[in-house]
Design goal:
The protein is α/β, with parallel strands linked by helices and 315 residues long. It contains 10 helices and 10 strands. Helix 3 crosses helix 10 and helix 7 packs across helix 8. The longest helix has 20 residues, at 271-290. It is globular. The two termini are 35 Å apart.
Length: 315
């Protein structure tokens, strides 16, 4: 890995004191792709650019005239014929000139995904579950760490598949170092998104399992049947799918509230929810690159109803 320049050492001085020069060098060499540039993606991109990754590519051919209103990097006076990725890339470049910010041609619905081989970490945002699974499979085939995320009303989640990932644990304050060797690398294995969405409901816990797991699995079932994502008008069928799985798994005490299902199916995005999930997700992507600290394996869920962020392994 290349040594840090004087300019990089000066700009990243504060974080160098936190995670050290070797971690920063790994970040500086990282190549990251974000596809689907919505408000949630903006929050992630802003954080990883300021952290100082080597390069960030944005993929979204949506014209600025149809940009997500939560994308604060696209000004109201932006040229309507310019793409969201082009305008956002220019704004991010100004935030940190030391990071190479570019545009990956195409959009998230592209069929040939072989280009993911050029990246270490790939993030797909606010896309159908079917498309998320296709990208996950492509990243697995080409050795790129894969994340997918979505923000739906007051709910948000992200999924991580780092395949076989080695990391060095962070030293915890007050930990007994005799019991924990923080210098010894540890390894985690991650299941695919497909296997997570097809998890056996009888293995879910009525109280400990997050209700969004049930919703995602039901929406995946709906997409497979109808060849499109579920929308608010599909509320009744999603409820039926969930109830059918609960009955088959004999989980009488498992209850997925109607208001949670309604929120999840709505087509609204809240900036506050985007900011919370975006901050956590950006930090996780930096962990994937730095191999420092235990990563989320494999889902993170957050909802405004209880204000809690929950990490659970599914699959």
């Amino acid at each position: 890995m290349a040594e840090l320049s004087e300019a990089e050492a000066a700009v990243y001085d504060r974080q160098l004191r936190v995670w050290g020069i070797e971690v920063q060098k790994r970040l500086n060499a990282a190549k990251i792709l974000i596809a689907g540039y919505t408000g949630l993606a903006v929050e992630v991109a802003k954080n990883i650019v300021l952290a100082g990754v080597g390069s960030l590519s944005l993929m979204d051919s949506t014209l600025c005239a149809s940009a997500d209103p939560d994308n604060f990097l696209v000004p109201h006076d932006a040229k309507h014929q310019a793409s969201v990725a082009e305008v956002s890339a220019a704004a991010l470049q100004e935030m940190n000139p030391l990071v190479k910010v570019s545009v990956q041609a195409g959009s998230a619905d592209v069929k040939d995904l072989s280009f993911v081989a050029s990246y270490q970490v790939v993030l797909l945002v606010d896309q159908s579950l079917e498309r998320q699974q296709a990208w996950d499979q492509a990243c697995t085939a080409h050795g790129a760490a894969f994340y997918s995320a979505a923000s739906q009303g007051t709910c948000t989640y992200f999924f991580a598949n780092l395949h076989n990932h080695t990391f060095t644990p962070l030293e915890k304050a007050g930990a007994d170092l005799a019991d924990t060797d923080v210098s010894k690398p540890q390894e985690l294995q991650f299941p695919s998104l497909e296997s997570a969405l097809k998890t056996d409901w009888s293995r879910l816990h009525p109280r400990r399992s997050h209700k969004l797991i049930c919703l995602l699995a039901a929406c995946a079932h709906f997409e497979q049947k109808h060849n499109r994502p579920a929308q608010s008008e599909d509320l009744s069928e999603i409820k039926q799918i969930i109830q059918k799985h609960i009955t088959q798994a004999k989980l009488a005490k498992l209850n997925v509230p109607d208001d949670l299902i309604e929120e999840f199916l709505c087509d609204e995005h809240l900036p506050a929810v985007n900011a919370i999930c975006g901050g956590v997700l950006a930090n996780e992507m930096l962990k994937a690159v730095s191999h420092k600290g235990e990563p989320v394996n494999n889902f993170f869920f957050f909802g405004l109803s209880d204000g809690a962020g929950v990490v659970q392994r599914v699959g």
